[in-house]
Amino acid sequence: MDVTRYIDDRPEDGAFRVNRAIFTDQAVFDRELTRLFEGGWVFLGMESQAPAPHDFFTTFAGRVPILVQRDGEGHLRAFVNSCPHKGARLAQTQAGNARLHVCPYHSWSFDSAGRSKAIKWQRAGCYSAAFAQDEHGLAELPRFAGHRGFLFGSLSADVPELSEYLGEAAHLLDLVADQSAEGLELVPGQVTFTYAANWKLQLENCSDAYHFTSAHPSYIRVLERRQQEISADVVASVWESSDFWKEEAQGVAGGSYSFAHGHVLNWGIFGVTPAIPLYESAQVLAERHGEARRDWMFNMRNLTIFPNLQVAENASSQLRVIRPLGPGLTEMRTWCIAPKGESKAARRQRIRQYEDFFNPTGMATPDDTVSYENCQAGFAGTVNPWLQGHARGMTASVAGGNRFSDVLGMQPERSVLADAQLCDETLYHSYYRAWAARMAGGDGA
Amino acid sequence: MTATLTRADAEDLLYREALLLDTGRFADWLALFTADVEFWMPAWRDETTTTQDPDSELSLIYYKGRRNLEDRVMRLTSGLSVASAPLPRVVHQVTNVLVLEAADGVAEVSAAFTCHRHDVRMNRSDCFFGRYLYRVVDEGGSWRIARKVVTLLNDTIPTVVDINSI
Asked: Is 70 exceeded by the pLDDT of residue A413?
């Protein structure tokens, strides 16, 4: 595939443009599935989703159903959730505990290490010697690894080690994991939604500081109303005590970091404020990690681990898994991710803030997803196929990190320091450079 | 002297609530709730159970206090939310109304609902369905909703679900 048809990347001319076709073209989409989602590292879930022996959870890598299973010794593995006999999906639920998976179609069974346990009526089956030579266990993912409780797998063996793939962006997962000495957990209650637009719109929106005051004025109006009338009943929001979205804010308000392999962060300074549920641990975290690192835990942070994981810590804390269903249809599975062991009051505050802002039944996310659908409709217009949405920050982006990344010992490929109105768009370049590198070549084109 | 809720009272209240939502009369809709109303649509914990404790588990919507519902109405009708303008067309069908318990001035009511929504923006129709559980109280001679629990059975949300389509 000639990726220059889709990504016009000319740093020497200060030009970076994305062609609308990457959001709509079926051939591009099919290639994304095989190359990105079914041919490389994708986020599968959290270790805390299968904490005990024989626990399992199910998920997807692109179209492929995946079973992540802990065996009796506590060892985690990832398998294709499909019986080798006729291909039927094996585990039927999102999560559970099973020493044995028995296929509901013809009763082939597998232990929690994925080994074939029994083939029904095998001796009477008049199988040939060739059948005996086949592996009858579950197909294991060629690559499966974790970092600080975040589990990743790859359906292709031809990928770098996970540590190399995450690279310097791993520091940002550490910043999530280090918020409690006990680690992370997903708050019970998972929310799934779909939107009728391309998956990369979600990828971009998470990193998009530019849209907030434009797409969410109704939410900002609600915040203003709540500020005027403080009462125990209203849902306190971290945005209320922040200047982040205010037009008159001055000075460095945050910025962005770009990493190899398509990972990015955009961030903003919130300050150590009681509006953030982590506030009760502010002192302990400063003692454990130092003040500078503690302060980073209180910054607004929107992290993408390319291509399907986003951890958004702003109004609350959200873990998102992006699953493309078609060029114009995407499924989002979302959880409230939280440090284990926080107080009941902090957890309640986190949950209330989460529901209000992040849920598709809340007051902010629908104004994003509806905007994605408006984009998808607009992408049909190809009179000028090149979008102009990847150009802000072009003269502010510098190679390497800055004083804020230094305190984390983190070395991004590029960084931008920004006031409230810069709203960098060069961080998207990291997405599309990784995208182009993996979509290019391989078919003689 | 307080009244005991009859099924006819319950049906009248629930049908009226549905009509107010369907016709966009949100101020009148808000007036059906007590000031300290609990409005709760739990999320699903797994395939078979919804979350049970809104303070330690996630809900799709959880508010304590009508004040928060007023915020939702303000956003919905502000003209400042692209997801809410134009408002989708909705019709609620409330059935299977049953008074579970009724004492002087307070009652528990269950019902089933479907809500058909037509999103004119995307030319797309969806149907949401589930169960309602109400606590209804007599407030100065009128029945008011002190608690409403919406169990949404088809919880894979197509882009957006707001308070007017459940």
From this structure: yes
